[in-house]
Design goal:
Largest sheet: 12 strands, mixed
Strand content: 35-45%
Number of strands: 51
Strand order of the largest sheet: 42-43-44-45-46-33-34-35-50-49-48-47
Shape: globular
Amino acid sequence: MAVSLLWWYMKIDSKVTSRFAHNVITSRAVNRGNVHKEVVFDVELPKTAFITNFSMTIDGVTYPGTIKEKEVAKKQYEKAVSKGQTAGLVKASGRKTEKFTVSVNIEAASKVTFELTYEELLKRQFGKYEMFIKVKPKQLVKDFEIEVNIFEPQGITELEAEGTFITNDLQNIIKKTFSEKKGHISFKPTLDQQRTCANCSQSVLDGDFTVKYDVKRTTPDNLQIVNGYFVHFFAPTNLPNLPKNVIFVIDISGSMSGREIEQTREALLKILDDIKEDDFFNFILFGSEVRTWKETLIKATPENLDEARKFVRGIDTAGMTNLHGGIMRGIDMLNAAHEGNLVPKRSASIIIMLTDGQPNVGISNTQDIQTHVKKAIEGKYPLYNLGFGYGVDYNFLEKMALENKGLARRIYPDSDASLQLQGFYDEVSNPMLTDVELNYPENEISDLTKNSFKHFYDGSEIVVAGRFIDNNQNSLTVDVRGEGVSMDFFDLSTVHKQTAKAFQEQEYIFGEYIERLWAYLTIEQLLEERIAATGEEKENLTAEALDLSLKYKFVTPLTSMVVTKPETYDNQDGIADKPIEGRDIFTVLLYLRIDGDPHFIISVPQKKDAICFNINENPGAVLNLINDPVTGITVNGELIGDKRVNSDAKIQNTYFGKIGIANKHLDLRLTVTPEKITIQNGNEKTGFTWLDSVTLQQEGLALIINREKSLVLKMGSGASFVIVLHQVWKKHPLHQDFLGLYALESEKLSEQTHGLLGQFFHPVDFTILEIHPGSDPKKPDATMIVKNNELTVTRGWQKDYRRDPKHGVDVPCWFVHNNGAGLIDGVHTDYIVSSLF
């Protein structure tokens, strides 16, 4: 059968000049059918990249993308929504990538060309710069090519290219050459070479294409000047490594049980094999309680390492998440080691914390934890926070790390999680210098990027860029200082001068690259500083980053690209936004809640959206919310009504007045009402009231009661649950106290989990079409495609009471009518059960 849509051209053209990559992806297609057809252009870009330009050309007419302030673009988007249009182009799609997607309808026999440009600064790790290109054309392309041109004034020492999809036959198609300062790579498979088999129409081009290289280093640093801007690269290679003092702070709460703790143990054992004999280390474990392997840091002798391996093999999970207690114990131990001269004076100290959840024991307010940690560390050493999975508050971890000269990294809950953990340790395992400062004459430089760094690690590189006050200046005195292993200070003071020949060579590949590199680095660092800032400081950082983003046309978290399409065949304007780690995750992450009516909210972050629905039933009905036959966990809720029936209302208000959570494998039951909490373990019963403040830990059960607010419960190794108490005025003539339920760490439940809530622990996807005005002007209606059903939904708001039990926070969602019909499996009456247990 003939293919009506033919992609006949796709080229990825990359120009790299002094580590700064300028990439252009061009695709062309023709509609060979007899009717108009939708053409979809989607590519995956590195998360570290900024989109700078996009256009599509249809039959000779070009439709460009324009970059605007996010709020301005948002108003344009809302205007489009009110007209029944929709948008949304850039989404996080994996560990390293974001997906850019745009679609357009074109007429029969028409041609369309898409062109997308993005830029990024290549980072040096383990002694090499790496450029990552996602290759996924999804079908055979008549003319496909990847071309990479690299220009490095320092000279290129090595150049390699590899692809996860490269077979032995395709290996010979990769052409690479380099000499002196220039490198070239090309990959241009024919149609037949793209096929998965001789007569197949499927393409073998599906995976990662990676280019790695390094440069000559005759001196520890290199400085380049072009048109009033400079970039300074610092990467000494001939220094000995500093001894390091490492404290591993490990979350061993119940949510880490199973594969997560196994992978953590595996990673720690590998790390112990790499720890050097001059290093000092210790382990701190936190669940509900905090315990340490040793009372102080221990030198990595062969005997101590053997003992540590035995300790690591015995690490197991228990309790809740006393994150504050664990991290503070680590800081106190490291401070005491330095004050008591228990570790070498010339050494590098770091704390690496791993957690998969959110603090819920001891001090659990994240702002308080940040304040305590920052005050205790006082800038003396970096804190690295590793968030395991999607149950963490990544924004909190990132902010706390950045405030303490470290960084946060997400560990993806896949089969290679132990390798991810080990890989992060490898990045920071070889410190060469501490307290590195790169100084320049203040009267010559303005707008300097970050120039002080706590540690310099072997195989990495420090990059500083700035702008000259005098645009014609072509020389600069540089002073670099840092503390090393064999001297109090590494001291490098040099005068760099740019020659006319160098100007010409740099112009050869990519003209104003240093100015754009400076802008890229400045925006990146302003956005990073903005994470930990508050008040006026945050406003100033935001304004500065926004101005630069608009001036240099970068799509950043503060700007959006508005894509205008031809007004035919229901084409719609689109908005491309830059996703933010911790807020926009491709893998489905659900928090599920029931509060009030009762109403249910299903959050779907990969859509940046949520679905909600109500269940209208009579008081006294008991609904099955969660049922997992594998873990034995069941959650049911009993409805209550108002104190008196409103005869004028068509539907009576109902709420959850009683919640029962049971684990049949452990013979445990928890009954919660607005008056009391009862635990039944076999034949034994224990009771509490909401006036109690309780932290209870026993076999198979962890319970925390926050007086008159909420309780946190975990049974066995399954999910955690939060029950929120909603209190009304006791003399209220109509309403009465009720309960809200939130399910956390749903990935701990099995794939067989079901129930009104439980069915949504599995991935859910939906598509919104035909947005149009509804009966309420402020709440447009739309068509939702979900579970192969076509539903009419309404844009609305529901309250999230997790952080503010009294007032709640408004959450926008698409409301599914008629008791969730078409969204839930079956009908809502299927979930009515006879009793709470």
